[in-house]
Amino acid sequence: MASTRQVESIGIIGGGLAGLSTAYHLIDIATKTRPNDKLHITIYDIRNVGEGGASAVAGGLMHPFSPRGKIIHFGESALEMSKVLVKAATKHKPDCVLRDHLFRVALTSKNVAQLQDTASKYGSLATWLSQEDLYNNYGIDCLGGLKLSNGCQVIHVPTYLEGLLIETVSKGRQLTDGNVKWELIKSNDKEALDQKLQQHDSIIMSAGSGLLHDNNLVEEDSLPVQLVRGQSIEIEMANKSDEKATSAILSGKYISPLPSLTQEGNNSTDSSQRYVIGATHEFKPTPLISSEVKEELRTRTYQLAPHLWEEGKVDKITNGVRMQSHRGIYGRMPIIGQYNLEAIGESDIINHDRKWIFTGLSSRGLIYHGLFGKWLANAVLNDSEECLQDEFEDFDWWRRKQKKK
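RESULT FIELD:
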């Protein structure tokens, strides 16, 4: 049941995949259901859109499958919603879609059987290709694999976020009294941020690991999560027209194309191709040094793209920290709902009576951000968690898990 309380002003902390998806859906729902009401949204971030957080260094491979080829929970409906957001972003940034397919490849006989079973069950999304097909047509040396398409695609996430923000701001102008704005804040200035947040009817905390590191807005022990560092290598290769472009490949690690320097707005006339290879999974506070990162990623991906390692030039190493939720009966699900620590016997850091949280996307940000962002937006506008309960009966698994500690 919706609350009688009118939500007219919303502050969103973090403008990555979670935050921007929620902002888009807040405006989209409002334009369809309450176009004459007030709705003002402010997105607070320590950097410009697409420039910070785990979202800015994500691999960009959007698909609904687990490493074993099974559909993740809500996977198909999540893919459909993510496609909606990508389509909205491409109105302004068409180059954010780098490939309309990707490959999940098998390196063991057990994985061959798993992926062949996937193709038999989900033929609309996954097509099995033999060892010969992949090598002859795409230059991928493996035991066979899946070509994932029909919405499974490769996204340049920073460019995508730029496009999604433009569309969200544009939709905000359709309201009689509404707008969406982006406001830069200082890292670790919690007092100043707290003053800004008090001006809003509701706030949404969606900054991923930044909730802990940058602004210290949540207690680390209040959430069933762990922080995972991921380091990736960006490689540049001379563009040779007689060679096929390297495909986007998943095999535990990933190889994914990047925009050219000219696509990113650089004045360079260089026509080189760029790729990202990633990512490490580091749980220790001290990160791997660059030589260790290169060795781990080379060992895990050399067979799939030896020409990148032999002919390419390592341009840089990127580094991001993801907030990864604990595994449950549905796998690793996002953390979503009202953030009321009194319910689990702890004290709040931010004093606001309408705090919501959307985090824990980890490596599934592209597939889950659209669906869960829509659910949360509906709940915030109705000022009620019943909307979440209707969509996902166990949405508050994370609160119940913490109560048991």
